[in-house]
Amino acid sequence: MGTGFFSERLLLLPECFLGPSHRLTHQLWGRSGGNKWTDGYDEEDERTRRVREKLPPEGPVLCSFNQHFKLEPATFRVWLDLLRALPGSVLWLLEGNPVSHRNLLREAAAGGGEAW
Hints:
The chain is mainly α. It has helices at residues 22-29, 43-52, 73-85, 98-110, and strands at 61-64, 90-93. Helix 3 (73-85) links the parallel strand 1 (61-64) and strand 2 (90-93). It is extended.
């Protein structure tokens, strides 16, 4: 990696795709400190967790745990296309602020998607 191009010291996290903020960690995993989707995973737990998260019992779940301002229109359109192409699929996003939530619903409806 071209460390000569950075003034910051790099911190490599080989087992992590992102280092979330404290607030984000609690929104995703509650106060358990663990990953509620994989800790002690089994098939029965998946059904229970889907119910708890208000997800359908079956079907693909497309996820983005980025803040809403990071979502790009082209990417959102691809997600809407995938939702139409994959029966029973849903898009699971972080809970955003009311304005961004309203805007995403509007864009989904304009793009032929269902309002969640």
